[in-house]
Write a structure and sequence with these properties.
With 163 residues, this protein is an all-alpha fold. Helix content is 72%, strand content 0%.
Length: 163
């Protein structure tokens, strides 16, 4: 999921720039929209898995405030990873635009055509992108602190089979 999210960021930033060729812009829009649909499906599966399979408890040596902040950041990331593709979907469908993968599968639009709804979803998508960027930066900084400075085993818990 992280690689897919990271791939959508430059695509999303470049596709809205003035002066790029229409062909490149169309390719980036198609990529961004369809990867967004995939991410929405993956985050739903991931949230269902996380709710049924909670992570192991945090190490006992962590301060209570660190455990609280880590939990809040993780759930905020989950929420934003759900809200980003959802708001993108609403923006595209309410704006009357196609989502090629869903259209090819015959999936109908689940929201009505509405400029007001499309604009609200567009603003939501924009502001959530900044929020997720800030939380990802915070998450990376905390991970590096545990990996490089503290060397306390917290960083290793993020990798499968090492918790």
């Amino acid at each position: 999921m992280a690689l897919l999210v990271l791939a959508t960021i430059p695509a999303g930033a470049i596709m809205i720039q003035d002066g790029i060729s229409r062909s490149l812009q169309n390719t980036l829009f198609i990529f961004h929209k369809n990867v967004g649909v995939l991410l929405l499906l993956l985050i739903v599966v991931r949230l269902a898995y996380r709710l049924r399979n909670p992570p192991p408890p945090e190490p006992a040596h962590l301060a209570e405030w660190q455990v609280t902040v880590a939990g809040a950041v993780h759930w905020a990331l989950y929420g934003l990873l759900f809200l980003m593709p959802l708001s993108g979907y609403v923006r595209v469908r309410a704006g009357g635009f196609p989502i090629e993968a869903l259209d090819a599968l015959g999936v109908p639009a689940l929201v009505p055509r509405s400029d007001a709804l499309a604009n609200f979803a567009k603003a939501t998508h924009f502001w959530c992108s900044w929020a997720i960027a800030a939380l990802v930066a915070l998450h990376i900084a905390a991970a590096l602190q545990h990996a490089v400075l503290k060397k306390d085993g917290v960083f290793q818990r993020m990798w499968p089979g090492r918790a």
